[in-house]
Amino acid sequence: MEESFAEEHHIKVGDELPITDLYNYSGYDPLIVSAISNESSLFPFNSIVVDWSEEIADVLNVSEIFVGTDDVDVLQPIISKIPALHFTTKTAELKEDDQMFQQRYVLVIGTLIILIASASFGILQTLMNDILTQQTSYRITRLLGLTQNGMMSVIVWQAFIFVCYGVVFGLTFGIFFTKLLWFVIDPGSSTFIDSTAVLYTVGVLLVLTLICFILQGYKMSRHPLENTEDS
């Protein structure tokens, strides 16, 4: 028995503890307190440890048992008494937990990659369509003296500034609402922002933006001016 529990209830070694189950049945033999200890590692969940030889052990509803030993052979008497028990080592359990974590991590990261890629594709496609609808205006600026490279630069900078604007506001509001959500759920916790992953994502989006709109700007700026009839 745990020392603090014994002191609280004025229990001493040799005392008998009556046993009553959930159905108020009290016909079990009383437990005799054989030892009182202040070793916290012996009482990770409860203040009383019951020996397997006690009568009450036959009717206990056991879900998990933690055995502090490196020798599996010492478990054989328990296995023979309760063959339905399944034993696993701490190393195997930690390995299984690590595998489960890796699987969940890959699933979450994979889902995020698909969502980010889909959103990026949609943004770039919308921008490209918007610029295509304004190709008549771009050609007019060419007629007014804008060079081919100047027109390409205008297209690229418009798209680049739009994406940067979206990235800055998206990160600002995303971080704010993420911290706000976690504060509401668990005020005592702290949130960790993976800045490396965020920077990589932003970098890839900006590079894709430059590539897409340099190609589109080059193609539109090289379009013959004689085809600027009403369109």
TrEMBL record:
PANTHER family attached to this UniProt entry: ABC TRANSPORTER PERMEASE YTRF, MEMBRANE COMPONENT OF TRANSPORTER-RELATED
Molecular function, one GO term: transmembrane transporter activity
Sequence ranges assigned to domain ABC3 transporter permease C-terminal in this UniProt record: 112-224
Record keywords, A-Z: Cell membrane, Membrane, Transmembrane, Transmembrane helix
Topological type in the membrane: Multi-pass membrane protein
Gene Ontology cellular component annotations, sorted alphabetically: plasma membrane
Protein family per UniProt: Belongs to the ABC-4 integral membrane protein family.
Name of the protein in its database record: ABC3 transporter permease C-terminal domain-containing protein
UniProt xrefs under InterPro entries: ABC3_permease_C, Macrolide_Exporter_MacB
Domain of life: Bacteria
Places the protein is found: Cell membrane
One Pfam family per UniProt: FtsX
Membrane-spanning residues: 105-124, 155-185, 197-218
